[in-house]
Request: fold
Amino acid sequence: MDRRTFLKIMGSGVAGAATGNLLTPGRTPASEVPLGKEFYGILVDTTRCIGCRRCELGCAEVNGMPIPDIAESKTEDILKTLRKTSDTQYTVINRYETEKGPVYVPRRCMHCSQPGCVAACLVKAMKKRPTGQVTWDLNCIGCRLCMVSCPFDIPKFEYKKAIPRIQKCNLCWDRFNKGALPGCVEVCPTQALMFGTRKQILEEGKRRIATNPDKYVDHIYGEYEVGGTSHLYLSAVPFEQIGFRKDLGTVPYPEYSTGFLYAVPFIFVLWPIVMLGMNRATKKHEEEKHEEKHEEHGKH
Amino acid sequence: MNRKLLYFLVSIAYLILISYGLYSVYTVEATLRVKEPPKIKLENKIAIAHTEIFGKLERPQVIFNHGKHEEAYKKEGCAECHPEKDGQVMFAFPKNLKKKDKTAVMNAYHDACIDCHKKSAKKEKTGPVNCGDCHKKQEKTLVVKYPKAEFDFYVHDKHVKKLKEKIGKDDCGLCHHSYDPYEEDETLRLVYEPGTEESCYYCHELGKKRGPELTKITKAAADKGLSIKEASHQQCLNCHLKYREDYLKKGEKDACPTECIKCHTGEYRTLVQLEKVPRPDRDQPKRPLINIKDAKLKGVPFDHDYHQIASKTCRSCHHETLKACKDCHDLTGKPEGNYVNVARAYHDVFSEHSCEGCHNVKKAEKDCNGCHHYIAVVEADSLGPKDKSCGICHSGEIKGAFSRAPLSVAGLDPQKVPNKVKVEVLSKEYEPSEFPHMDIIKKLVDISNKSKLANYFHKDMQTMCEGCHHRSPAEAEVKKDTPPNCRNCHTITPEPRNLDKTTLLSAYHRQCMGCHDKMGIEKGSSVRFKDGDRCGACHKKKVAGPAEITRLKNDNVVKQNTKNILNVWRPK
Reply:
């Protein structure tokens, strides 16, 4: 191997490595949120919720959705079945019969610190805002990957519309920017919902547990689940009794795929370059041989 | 051809993988349920498994019908199967079991059961001799568990009276004995001394006692294999066998039972049923003044008589021996009391045996919990007890301590304490709510007067007010001559500096509905729907009220306030 070949091989190697680095940028986990960009969220105290469904009404009003009938007579029938959020209802209240009597649980998007839906979105319609809200944009193409990726079964598809999109709670992103509280928080008559930065509501939740050890179970749902969520829950009964999954683990959902996904550019970009480099290197050798032969022919 | 086969196999493999993945995704259970093992009617049956010796069983357990065998051996008596010692039947089985290892126990059982079955098969119809007839597969998972038998004060009293009839004098030594671990002559260790009678549990409940002397005694009991189960079966049944014949002659069939389900009924007498039953007399003090030497606080007058009636066993307070608390717990703590000092022994919030612990349990009852669930135990502790609350117990004199006059609403000034309060500041969608202030006071006073505990600790009417008007210095309110108002502390809009501070709307709802919930009042509680209209229980909906509650069209002030709040929350 002569000097020229050696340089070529080295050059292609360095170029490949550089491209690989460009395509695999450093990851910023949610725990290292830069100062001043604290996530906002809601602390839900299920011991305070009285199941009046006023948050459903508030949510429907601020988001321009069909107004639910929250009359008492209807409510009793509705609460008999466990409901899920839908494309026209971003928040629902369910009643669970537990060892400590009936417990009402308001459910809506958990606004994960590292959301699976955002990672799954092909067109970046789903976004995690710097202030914590997981919002969706109008450029949704309706692929429904976010529905598959959500561990809480929250994003819902507008099956009945001509141009369907994904719909879900966006923690009242528009109202937040105008300086108003989320619709559900504003109307809650018992302050079962508390809005604040994630740090504030987490501290408040821990304070409530510490001062009432007999009232709450010693766990804040959403503190560590799927890497932390902006929606935190307090409960008097074990969380599996009020419809929360305990099998989700503490690893953020995108983390399961990022390792693999970051390896993809390496295989598609770096590997051809390496092979090409090798190919060029060996081909040159043949050309030289050819030249040598030619020279030999010339001598004759 | 081969290639096609290969494609086919690969696609099948993928299909299996996909279906397995889907299966595992969709079968994740949202709630975890523990399957309860099936139960059978007890009917004097016993499950023989001895998993402590065998570990995992090779064949299914044997469900043994003890009742049938008792019936069959009526003439011969228990000694036919059970060993005898000093004229007493020991309720162990089989008779000649020498070693307690797997083969020995198995052989002993098989010998005892099968031999007997074979022997009597010649004379009459008898039990099985084949493996599967006793070790039945369908009975593998059955659970035979008898509920605890409770020897309560009613049964105790009955035994005392009957035995007195029989023998002609009081002799507690028939059942009670004490054990002196320091006596050198072993035969003299088990003696009866009048005046030292205690519950069987104190010595025969193994592995729970502390302190040097008690550990020695329970160890001796453990060495003899006399757990509470063994000891009470031996003691009770032998005596029952002895006197059963006499009663049978008289025609009293139910006296002196020996069948399992006669004692293990699973039904227990309540405190109300036991109220009239006299408690055993052992020269306990009736109404002592508990005074600890060198203690800083004054002595506590204690109604021992009443507390006897208010509890089902002596053990609920005297947890390890029937001595006075201060015998084991002194000011600094000593080994007999597991180094728990006397202050802790009386005031431990979470103990079942301390004064405060037991009173806390009472406070969680339905009638009391309406007010008391707001008063967090931990918070009350960290705020530091008020002088006046210590003084309720630590009065230092017996005089007048045991008869408190009931509270009365007669002395209340109708100017200061209104009959009805109209809650209307927040009224928007709903009509103002009319709050029956005086009716509630009357009801609470009534509840308080009925309970001796409440009557003692709710010293005056102000204490009753503090149930709702919490954290307000009652004395100051009275002096100023202005009734405490919810709005004094609870603002209408959220307080930006203290996010947990309750707004007025939520203060009303949480205070009222929380209390209704805890006291089990159906009207206006959060959990019950029976009445249909929960909101209407307190305030009627306006006929043409505004439907839009969040848009706040004309409410610029509120909007401005919310904006300010968010600006405070936002980090700079």
